[in-house]
Amino acid sequence: GVDSNEKRQSEGDGQRSDSIMVLSINPDKKTTEIVSIPRDTQAEIVGHDSVEKINHAYAYGGPDMAVKSLEKLLDVPIDHYATVDMDGIKGMVDEIGGVDVISNATFSYSGYSFVKGEKTHLDGDKALAFIRSRKEEGAGGDFGQQERQQLVLRGIANELTSVKSLTNCNGVTNQIKENVTTDLS
């Protein structure tokens, strides 16, 4: 996911990967695994001849450079990519009527409070607060943030596969078109 918030845009800073996940789908076993890569992981930025934070690859060369750098870091081929604008998460969550998650930490962020182990219903704004928090007391840093991002993505996936989401197929499709870039055809 990329986060092109107003502060970064006003400073002329490029989009950096705020969240990097590698999704492995095994159709034979019918399993899906998500591995989060810490955005501050030091890695060779392929095509930039430097070793620095892996999230810089996207800012330097978009998804192609990010994918090549991840392939080099992980020593695995990556067949496809999807880039999700973090602000788009808000719209997607709102279009599907929200998602339910069990918080992995007790913390407050952007006017919202979350309690570890407590189930909470997230609308779009609350979902953004849940996935953006990392430096606040109790939030668990990058690893806590990565876990929350996966919780929300799984919640979205669960809602998208439910009968309920079929009633708002156009709204969901529009949110995906506006906020997701991919090389999948």
From TrEMBL:
Listed Basic and acidic residues bias regions: 1-16
Top-level taxon: Bacteria
Domain Cell envelope-related transcriptional attenuator: 16-161
Region feature (Disordered): 1-20
InterPro entries referenced in this protein's UniProt entry, alphabetically: LytR/CpsA/Psr_CW_biosynth, LytR_CpsA_psr
Short name of one Pfam family: LytR_cpsA_psr
NCBIfam families membership: lytR_cpsA_psr
Family assignment from sequence similarity: Belongs to the LytR/CpsA/Psr (LCP) family.
The protein's name: LytR family transcriptional regulator
Source organism: Staphylococcus nepalensis
